Amino acid sequence: MTTERPLRAVAINCTLKGVDAASGKPNSSTEKMLRLFMAALAEQGVVTAPVIRAVDHDIKPGITSDEGPGDAWPAIRKAVLDAQILIIGTPIWLGQPSSVCKRVLERLNAFLGETDDSGRLVSYGRVAGVAVVGNEDGAHHVTAELYQGLADVGFTIPPNAAAYWVGEAMGHVDFKDLDQTPDKVVETVGLAARNIVHLSRLLASNGYPPDGQPAKFRDG
After folding, report:
1. Residue 198's domain is classified under what CATH number?
2. Over the chain (220 residues), what is each successive 10-residue block's mean pLDDT?
């Protein structure tokens, strides 16, 4: 009898905001959405790590896995590769993912030149999801940009793997300020978590074929 290895998930928060000076707690709607996401994954039996808030780390500009002294990315990269699930959360600014999010994608770009012992990208077999918040249009556009970037660098994306909340255009109420999380957001996060976990388990038992080899599938 074999014991199934538990899946692990890591989330990267690409907010532009820091810690609230009065409370010392993260002052970010993206953080709230990601914690909701990670809780839904935990309900599916996934081992979750604390959310990585990118602005707390000195992530150097560049497209390699290590941009030299002081670069915080190598440790974040290790956390990503130690997990089977990656969730990226970003706010919407000017209809776009945050600049921090784009830097994270640029650093993930290094995976395109890194392979495992079987010739596959080191990111293969890992599943990605997306969380988006904002007070303007753009949730679908931002999701599409992240989907394309994550797929390009080797992550697999299941159906309905994104959840978002968008407030009134030019409004003053943020997701973190809501007294109650909308039911539709909770439902969508739950659906995304189930699909992400399902695909992760499939890939754990039937991974992508080594370079140059035909695909093989195990029954059951």
Report:
1. 3.40.50.360
2. 76 86 72 96 96 96 96 98 98 95 98 93 97 91 97 97 89 88 96 97 91 60
